[in-house]
Amino acid sequence: MTTGPEDLSEKLSQLDKKSNLEDVYERSTNKKRAFIVISIVLMAFLFFLSLCFGSVEMPIDETLKIILHAIYPGFEGSDNATHTTIVLKSYLPKTTICVITGMSLGVAGAIMQGILRNPLVSPFTLGVSSAASFGAVVAIVIWPTLFGAMSYIYIFGNIFYLQNILVVILAFIFGVGSILFVLLLAKRTSVSKSTVILAGVIISYLFQAGVAFGKYISDDEALREVTNWLLGSVNGVTISTVIIIFPLFIICFIAIEYLAPKINLMAAGDDVAKSLGLNVKRTRNIGLLLATIITCICIAFTGVIGFIGLMAPHITRMIIGNDSRYLFPASAIVGAITLLISYILSTTTMRPSVLPLGIYMYVFGGIFFIWLIARKKKEVSL
Questions:
Q1: Contact 163, 90 (CB under 8 A)
Q2: 53 strand-pairing partners
Q3: Within 13 Å and on the Cβ side, how many CA atoms surround 311?
Q4: No. of H helices and E strands in the chain?
Q5: Which helix (H) or strand (E) holds 26?
Q6: Closest by Cα among 97, 117, 108 to 308
Q7: What is this structure's pTM?
Q8: 88-141 pLDDT per residue, tens
């Protein structure tokens, strides 16, 4: 059987279309990878700057010597022992926690928005922050009121205040417990997207009432502690905090990235995902739980830091699109960049005082969403 000119032309046309599609996909993939690489370089640059511009400003060359000597002892270190101690034992843990927290909030917001297909969803709109805040209020205000003041203990020669430990534990427990309660409420009416979001809003209001009550009955000192915690800060973190958080963060991040192909399937709709063999309900529950855990691991130590879970995925999605395989790590890096900028500003604006990170994040978040609304209106008018 011979092939006519028309059949040959049609086959050539199909090959051209296939080649064009492959070229478009390759260019899109290269763009995503390039964005991630550039973001990593920017994050590393800001990480180094944050080691220089703290409450005590360090010379850039001296900071570089300290870091290189810490990594490779063969390099010449700094002659100033005080500067070395400040950089390695104060600035480095705080900056590292900023990176981990920013990445955690960024990827948590991305996976929640992907699972629920709602760009306004974040760990905080689902009640996680309110629940963690209530746990902190219980530790700072209610627990001492009921059981008296707490002392401190020595572990490996270090002083640990029992109240600080209780704040971390209760903030984590209440934060994770909130999403479990949300899923339990939603389970009665099948775990739909709207039901989960509505349940999260309800839980958020309930815990906000508890936080307001705790602030109302607190004395001046406790009220100040609660306010500082609600604004977010890394002032209290140490190298021990990094050692606790880092492995838990890595485990959760790998698990979230493993879910990325499944989240891509869910973007086509629950019915399509089910027809392709995906257990939508199970994937949604696991994704929400992982996002909550990776969030609570960090905010239990740093306090509430808002808007990153909303901003980072928005910014990333506008640049590289919705492919979760690239969106999740890119959102994490953008979240870290955002928090590092906030940290640098918080340590330099009113030096030697250090302002809470939450103040800058509220400013950044407000400016960003005003710009986003203005951009949408401009696109509509065009």
A1: no
A2: 57
A3: 24
A4: 16, 2
A5: helix 5-52
A6: 108
A7: 0.87
A8: 888 889 999 999 999 999 999 999 988 888 887 888 888 888 899 999 898 888
